[in-house]
């Protein structure tokens, strides 16, 4: 839709399903359609003819923005999975099945485009409002939102968050079918659909894209399926609360997820297909989390599907695919449009770190012993820490810090990595038990304020599932006390909080690794600590060969680790040079990498501007955390998100079916239960 067609004071809501057109100059209201949001000071206009070149749509309504947004509280938004509600006068919950979720991912090299369709039904005899929470990757760029209710298709338009909420509330009050999609956390989203009539089905379509992680020669694609429980410290009402199914809103948090008991099922399943085009020959395709079928149309392509007997949405779907190691090279992709030039630069380090210099290391293990780690997760952590302790060398030192309700170091001070000390620590490690809350901020503070010896490389390894609701507080504490340390987060579990773990690693100048409950912690530790103890390239700098580069993300280029490529994105002006040169140090020796660049002059990669914009929003969010005021940079985040049409903490998708005005009141607002993630104990994480 051309942006220049609608004046800035207008909001455009497109409802697909009827053949029609409009222009913003009309001032009369259609007699059949009441003014949307009259109580809120909004004016609905129906126009008659599109301008030349306007993309055809079935119908478009133009809503004048009110002078000031009307006051209104946060929409209630618990739950994910399948819907539940209460009939008037009854106390028992009645499940409304989420019949099916269909996800399709198309992967090209390191970029995934994912379409998700969810189908709900309303079997009640009165209208309902469906409100549910669902996970997506923390770096997902949500670019499209479409709701189908009966015969009506409703497309979401990106607007400022509070404005979108007000439009939605006004439409809900007046009986219009409406939809609202907001970001609760970078990896948790809330979607509301108002005035769904009895017997009607609902299809929800969301499209997003994100980049894939690459470790050595293996890419990882993750499709999250369930929001894990979150611990919120006392006095922290802005988190994500956990509640028992049928217990109502009991957590006291702004967002709440309702969990099914271990013997309960919602009947909701997921079908997922991945169309993979690696661009180079594939050596292996596998999933450590689910049973899959794989077909190979060609050496570089594969089609992956979930097996029918493994479709319960209680853990994240993880897909690994390995490519020929010698085929991956550093490279630069570029794109130009009316907004300017955008590029992405991928740097690949040497694959083998055995010959690289290793400094003495100071390992601080921060072990999560909260209730959600009970059983298999804590056992995996113990295995990982024990394996890492045995890999330490003479001259290294270590400390182990546990945290749950409080934080406590297992030893009085740093311990030299002698055989005797390690043997004693292994015995202490085995005595750790899980239980209580997750006061991670206290644990981070204790780990980072441990005495440091400057001749050693300090590595703080955070071993956790990340189930907390106060991520911003934890990240702020980490930044205040980071000093010379590097944070390496180690996520353990079936549906971990990847946003927190990757933010810790990014802001802490480190890296992240994940271990599922069915994976070997020992092998993961061997790979992980081989990489973090031997940086492949430090003091990284780029000679752009005269190219005018701006707004590089990340602004400070981190070390290049063995087996872990580095992705940089930015804006540029002018013609790309034949090559650029990346300088750095391998140990004490200077070295460089030549990267071809001129091929980007004649190619187009439309996803690159969105990739840059999402990275920019992430950088602004990080800056707000460091500044200690998450709202300070809100206007800048909002400006980028609106310009590039992305969902963010400051923007939302809203859609109104202006031709349909349903009868009666707003009906029931439904909470949505989900299974507790696999391996997470229900009794210790869900309030009884």
Features:
7-stranded mixed sheet, Rossmann fold, single chain, 10 helices, alpha+beta, 688 residues
How would you describe this protein?
The chain is α+β, with helices and mostly antiparallel strands and 688 residues long. It has a domain at 361-533: Rossmann fold (3-Layer(aba) Sandwich). The protein is 17% helix and 39% strand. The strands form eight sheets. Strands 2-3-1-10-9-14-7-6-19-22-21 form an eleven-stranded mixed sheet. Strands 26, 27, 28, 29, 30, 31 and 32 form a seven-stranded mixed sheet that branches. Helix 2 (376-391) packs antiparallel against helix 3 (419-430) and helix 2 packs across helix 7. Mean pLDDT is 81; it is low at 1-82 and 86-94.
Number of helices: 10
Strand order of the largest sheet: 2-3-1-10-9-14-7-6-19-22-21
CATH superfamily of the domain at 361-533: von Willebrand factor, type A domain
Shape: globular
Q: What is the CATH top level name of the domain at 361-533?
A: Alpha Beta
Task: Indicate the mean pLDDT.
Answer: 81
- Number of strand elements: 41
Q: Label the structural class.
A: alpha+beta
Fraction in beta strands: 35-45%
Q: Can you name the CATH architecture of the domain at 361-533?
A: 3-Layer(aba) Sandwich
What is the CA-atom radius of gyration, in angstroms? 26 Å
User: In whole angstroms, how far apart are the ends?
Assistant: 50 Å
Low-pLDDT regions: 1-82, 86-94
Helix content: 10-25%
* CATH level-3 fold name of the domain at 361-533: Rossmann fold
